[in-house]
Amino acid sequence: METLLNDFSVGLFFMQAIILLIVILLMRKFAWKPILDALQTREDGIQNALDSAENAKLEMQNLQADNDKLLKEARAEREAMLKEARELKNKMIDDAKTEAQAQANTMVAQAQAAIESEKKSAMAELKNHVAGLSIEIAEKVVRQELANKDKQLELVESMLGDAKLN
Amino acid sequence: MVATKSIKFLVVFVLALTSFSAFAQDDAVENNLVDSPDEIRAYISHHLKDSHDFHLYTDNASGKHYGFALPVIVWTSKGLKTFMSSAFHHDDNGTVVVDKGDAKLVKYHSKIYELDANATTLSFDEAHHPTNASKVIDFSITKSVFGMLLTGLLMLLGFGALARGYKKGNTIPKGFSRVLEPLVIYVRDEIARPNIGEKKYRKFMGFLLTVFFFIWILNILGLTPLGFNVTGQIAVTACLAIFTMIIYMVSGTKDFWAHTLWMPGVPVILRPVLAVIELVGFVIIKPFSLLVRLFANITAGHFVVMSLMALMITMKASFGPAVSTGMSLVLSLFIMFIELLVAFLQAFIFTMLSSLFIGMAVEEHDDH
User: Fold this and answer.
1) Where are the domains of chain B?
2) What is the pLDDT of residue B343?
3) Closest Cα to residue B195, out of B347, B343, B362, B345?
4) Nearest CB to A12; choose among B149, B210, B236
5) Which pLDDT value is given to residue B7?
């Protein structure tokens, strides 16, 4: 310990302190500051480059996704258009069918109506004709019948009997 | 780029080499060689100390020392004195007296003493402490100071180049900067961020990065044959530790001080006791552990490496030159690799613990 203390040189300590201080200050100004700044800048640059590469990758992925989406959409649209066309076609056919049906129905109905009216008029004519014939026959029968007086009375009598029953 | 940088480093070296001077000196030891255990021990302990000249090696045959002198700047009782360390003629035993007008200076065991007014030579007591001289405050550019200046320069050049590269718009550094960048990132992401927290770490990066590379480079310089032992100087590690302490004391949050001085959730009687313990911990124990760990590890490393190298001399008598040299080579090579790891590890641990302590001081307690 004593030799250690004896070896301790105050002057050397002082010189060392001054030299170290000067070296620290000089190195800080001329070396460490620019070096550390440059390293920091470079590291930031590398980090930025990596980040932007990552971003570009993400963007690419997004683009790809967009493309896929677009393609899907286009496909869906085409599908929809085709479907619509098909539906339109079916509808048109259906419409045409129903229209034709309706037309046919009306035509049938008209025809039926025409037939009915013809039938009616024919029946009416027939009726008139039958009525006329009946009246003629009746006239002839009545004329013959009423030639006999007794028979006239007998008829009146039967008619009155019928009326009573009513 | 690399070429011009290498040239810059070369220029520093050539400048150092041109100011070389060789001295002749009489050695007290008969053959001038460091070849006995006592001499080796003295050599190692001398190396572990700071020195006033930059000594590379000694030509033992001629007794010439190769290296260069460094400036001595001392504050004596008569004011500031400056001269080159060559004035001592490599004397470390207090025999050469440098007369600077009114102050007489001697160097003894890497320390400079000022002789008392009427003394002409240094005298010692039984424990080899000088009796008629007083220590001076030594602001010399010693070998350690030189090493620190060199390290500071290397750091400024290296990291300055890295910073300039970024400023020029290169996002990826080129050449040697490419080695430095991951180290900076390592300190930021493995040391500062996890310990201090994402929000506040930036403020302390200047200190942590500087200290980390400062210690690491100095540790590695200590492993070169240049023989620096800067981080093995207790004054240096103490200074580093005190810097850390001042930083975490100054940047301590209200929460930190509340927890340190008046710990919530503890009986009131115990709180002052805890406050004393916590304060002692933060002011003395933590900085002390920092400074001693670094100092002891580096000093021990130098000691072990040099001792193992000296094996080739001390073991020569018993094993012969070939075996002792081989053994010394293998062992010191092995320890050298460990020391290379320790050089990094100690820088890492110092920075790690500093950021841990800073992290404790700036932590926000959201849970209360």
Assistant:
1) 2-140, 145-362
2) 94
3) B362
4) B236
5) 52
Do residues B49 and B110 touch, judged by C-beta distance below 8 A?
Answer: yes
**Helix orientation angle between B37-48 and B286-314, rounded to the nearest 10 degrees:** 150
pLDDT-flagged residues of chain B (< 50): 1-2, 10-29, 368
Instruction: Give the length of chain A.
Output: 166
Burial class (CB in 10 A: 0-12, 13-18, 19+), B240: buried
Q: Edge-to-edge strands of the sheet including B133-135?
A: B98-100, B103-108, B111-115, B133-135
Listed in sequence order, the residues at least 6 apart from A145 whose beta carbon sits closer than 8 Å to its beta carbon are A151, A152, A155
- Cα–Cα distance measured from residue B240 to residue B292, given in angstroms and rounded to the nearest whole number: 11
- Summarize the confidence of residues A98-126 as an average pLDDT: 89
Q: Give me the residue from A11, A20, A42 closest to B139, CB to CB.
A: A11
Token digits for B339?
A: 């020391």
Percent of chain A that is helix, strand, coil (3-state, to 5): 95, 0, 5
Best of B74, B75, B107, B159 to disrupt the A interface (most A CBs within 10 Å) is B159
In contact, B27 and B209? CB cutoff 8 Å: no
Q: What is the pTM of this model?
A: 0.74
From B111, B185, B243, residue closest to A39, measured CB to CB: B185
Note whether B215 and B32 are within 8 A (CB).
no
* Among B190, B187, B189, B192, residue whose Cα is nearest residue B204: B192
Structure token pair of residue B323: 């075996």
Could you tell me if B241 and B287 are in contact, meaning their C-beta atoms sit under 8 angstroms apart? Answer: yes
Predicted complex ipTM exceeds 0.90: no
Asked if the Cβ–Cβ distance from B171 to A9 is below 8 Å, we say no
Residues facing B98 on adjacent strands:
B105
Shortest alpha-carbon distance between residue B363 and chain A (Å): 23
Instruction: Using an 8 Å CB-CB cutoff, list chain A residues near B299.
Output: none
pLDDT tens-place string over residues A82-111: 999 999 999 999 999 998 989 988 888 888
